[in-house]
Write a structure and sequence with these properties.
By secondary structure, the protein is α/β, with parallel strands linked by helices. Helix content is 31%, strand content 25%.
Length: 473
């Protein structure tokens, strides 16, 4: 019955719309700033209806200075086949390379809400869309052209231009035949949407048709429980971290009793942070080794790179600091700042790191290198096997990115992600333990990022920890 009603409504609307779609009667001047007849834009809703929307800016002419710098373009995406009873959703293509999708929904209690969901576009997908979208052309084109050879029939379809406030500037299209320019722009968006978006739409459509309550984040819970946690600034009792199997702490600031009590449990492991590549000014040994520093550590105030080739530093790490940490009952080391070799890529620095890392590995415990890709690759290329120096790799920010200018914790670039995935998978395939440490702001638009990390690590049997703070407290 529903389908028959929908069919009748669509037939009437289509007929009315076609009758109202005339060809262009006024030619625009070359500068495209001629006055045109003001229009009332109609923006589609996710329920498949159309609701009048009064744009903030009167639509007399295309003024590029008023156009959104957040959204490239929007479109109504119909989730069903021809005459199928199904909703549409609003897809906004963002300039940051993602799509922002609004799903309108009615809860079981009758409350209406719009769920906003974000999906990543690849660089290629975004580039394909950006290349074809011409907002000036879209604004000025007549949905129906006089020449039938350049006119393509279509059902209800709209492309949306947004203003600086993110409000509708103009909706183009509707129940009319659409010309080739409109169809080209509409098609390039549809053909470059991510697979995850289509899967999500199918779930949404099914729930919508059945009039079921829809939980959009059923597969992306707010709680990402994990067996691995990194707590370098944690000053509480370790018993409060009992839900974790593997924890990384700074054992200098915890007692032996705490550590032994924790790792005496079933499948419990404690790794201690040990900084071999830089010197922090809050350490009690800072003054003794400050003369060995090489330069400031960017973005980390009070920390400097250190000359790992110096025997004084090597002896301190291997004969004092590391044994003291082992005495506290830890299971291994979480070794930081082997990236000193990336910043100072000399043979002396490489050899110095090799001495320290082989020495730590020779203590008979786990050695997890934090990052250190430049060092590890160089060592394996010319000095020996990865098993000489590590048992595993912890890699920070594979899927995520720290914007040091704004403090935002957000999405990594495709290039960085691909590089680090190659790095960890090369050694993971050889048998190294792999851990991911990701920094992600706890906001709704980052929920897909949480899901991507979780799914990837479960697929590869890697452990991971997601923190909303770089302080790791």
């Amino acid at each position: 019955m529903k389908k028959k009603i929908v069919l009748w409504i669509m037939t009437v609307l289509t007929a009315c719309a076609l009758a109202g779609c005339g060809k262009a009667t006024d030619l625009l001047p070359a500068d495209d700033q001629a006055a045109v007849t003001p229009v009332t834009s109609v923006a589609p809703s996710s329920a498949g209806n159309t609701d009048p929307v009064t744009p903030v800016t009167p639509l007399y002419y295309f003024d590029e200075s008023l156009i959104s710098d957040e959204y490239l373009v929007g479109m109504d995406y119909f989730t069903g086949d021809f005459l199928e009873y199904a909703p549409t959703v609003i897809v906004k293509v963002r300039y940051d390379g993602r799509i922002e999708v609004g799903f309108d929904h009615t809860l079981l209690n009758g409350e209406e809400y719009t769920d906003i969901r974000y999906f990543d576009l690849t660089e290629e997908q975004y580039a394909n869309i950006e290349k074809e979208i011409d907002l000036r052309t879209l604004f000025l084109l007549d949905p129906e052209e006089a020449d039938p050879e350049t006119t393509m029939d279509g059902g209800y379809s709209s492309l949306i231009i947004y203003d600086k406030n993110g409000d509708v500037y103009k909706v183009c299209g509707g129940f009319c035949p659409h010309n080739k320019d409109f169809n080209r722009m509409s098609r390039v968006i549809s053909e470059n949407l991510p697979e995850e978006f289509f899967k999500f739409c199918d779930e949404y459509k099914l729930a919508w048709q059945r009039e079921e309550d829809f939980e959009p984040y059923a597969n992306h819970s707010d709680e990402f429980k994990t067996k691995y946690g990194v707590f370098l600034d944690y000053d509480g009792d370790l018993s409060e971290l009992d839900k974790y199997n593997y924890i990384v702490i700074d054992a200098q600031y915890h007692s032996r009793d705490e550590i032994v009590d924790f790792n005496s449990g079933y499948q419990k492991y404690v790794y201690s942070y040990i900084n071999i590549g830089s010197l922090e000014d809050f350490r009690d040994y800072y003054d003794e080794y400050a003369d060995l520093t090489l330069g400031d550590y960017e973005n980390w105030e009070g920390e400097e790179w250190i000359d790992v080739s110096d025997e004084r530093w090597q002896n301190f790490i291997l004969n004092e600091l590391a044994p003291e940490l082992l005495e506290k009952g830890i299971n291994g080391f979480f070794v930081d700042n082997c990236d000193v070799y990336y910043n100072y890529p000399t043979e002396d620095i490489l050899n110095g790191l090799a001495v320290i890392m082989r020495g730590l590995k020779g203590m008979g415990c786990d050695v997890i290198i934090n990052g250190g890709d430049a060092f590890l690759d160089a060592y394996c290329d010319s000095m020996g096997s990865w098993t000489d120096v590590i048992t595993g790799i912890n890699q920070e920010s594979v899927f995520s990115y720290i914007d040091w200018d704004t403090g935002a914790l957000t999405y990594a670039s495709d290039e960085d992600k691909e590089y680090f995935l190659d790095y960890i998978e090369r050694y993971g395939d050889k048998g190294a333990y792999i851990f991911l440490l990701e920094y992600v702001d706890d906001i709704p638009e980052n929920r897909p990022l949480h899901g991507s990390i979780k799914n990837y690590c479960e697929e590869h049997n890697y452990l991971y920890y997601i923190s909303d703070s770089i302080d790791l407290d």
